[in-house]
Amino acid sequence: MSAALQVTAFGLALLSTLFLLLATCTDCWMVNADDSLEVSHKCRGLWRECVTNMQDGVRTCDQYDSILADHSVKIVVTRTLMITADLLAGLALATLVLGLDCITFLKEDPCVKLKMCYGAGVILGAGSILGLIGSVWYAVDVYVERAMLVSHNIFLGVHYDFGWSCWLGMAGSTGCFVASVLLTCCLY
């Protein structure tokens, strides 16, 4: 039972970590949702902003000036939290691989392997909470920005919704949290 639970938690943690990495690296955290002519599709991300022409499929991206340039708090906090979540999830995966029962590393001391799995679960839980805070922070800020424009009767011709990168970050963080619960609560 313990080996099956470990492998299940490892598979979920691996998939969720990949989701977190993809969410951090991709550029569609906000997407325009009010383009009635369907001429272009605009995505904003943590690192750049891209516009895709729907007629010919040409995609152009504008990199933000510099990582150290003045950016909105939304982008800086989300970048920091997502990169930290990625690093913690990667560390947890490495620790979990060494702690799996099917790996022959430290085979003679099962107590140490169990502690490694537990430690991987704790690290994965911390990373998942940071990733979830970063993803939800960004989503709430997008919602508040849109609500402020609506409450002031300002219509700029386009408003933004959550992009697939934002949803991917939330899904990856949730998956890491479930894997963390499996490793910390159910393994004993």
TrEMBL record:
<dbReference type="GO" id="GO:0005198">
    <property type="term" value="F:structural molecule activity"/>
</dbReference>
<keyword id="KW-1003">Cell membrane</keyword>
<feature type="transmembrane region" description="Helical">
    <location>
        <begin position="162"/>
        <end position="187"/>
    </location>
</feature>
<comment type="function">
    <text>Claudins function as major constituents of the tight junction complexes that regulate the permeability of epithelia.</text>
</comment>
<dbReference type="InterPro" id="IPR003927">
    <property type="entry name" value="Claudin16"/>
</dbReference>
<keyword id="KW-0472">Membrane</keyword>
<dbReference type="InterPro" id="IPR017974">
    <property type="entry name" value="Claudin_CS"/>
</dbReference>
<dbReference type="GO" id="GO:0005923">
    <property type="term" value="C:bicellular tight junction"/>
</dbReference>
<dbReference type="InterPro" id="IPR006187">
    <property type="entry name" value="Claudin"/>
</dbReference>
<comment type="similarity">
    <text>Belongs to the claudin family.</text>
</comment>
<keyword id="KW-0812">Transmembrane</keyword>
<protein>
    <recommendedName>
        <fullName>Claudin</fullName>
    </recommendedName>
</protein>
<keyword id="KW-0732">Signal</keyword>
<keyword id="KW-0965">Cell junction</keyword>
<dbReference type="InterPro" id="IPR004031">
    <property type="entry name" value="PMP22/EMP/MP20/Claudin"/>
</dbReference>
<keyword id="KW-1133">Transmembrane helix</keyword>
<keyword id="KW-0796">Tight junction</keyword>
<dbReference type="Pfam" id="PF00822">
    <property type="entry name" value="PMP22_Claudin"/>
</dbReference>
<feature type="transmembrane region" description="Helical">
    <location>
        <begin position="118"/>
        <end position="140"/>
    </location>
</feature>
<dbReference type="GO" id="GO:0005886">
    <property type="term" value="C:plasma membrane"/>
</dbReference>
<feature type="signal peptide">
    <location>
        <begin position="1"/>
        <end position="28"/>
    </location>
</feature>
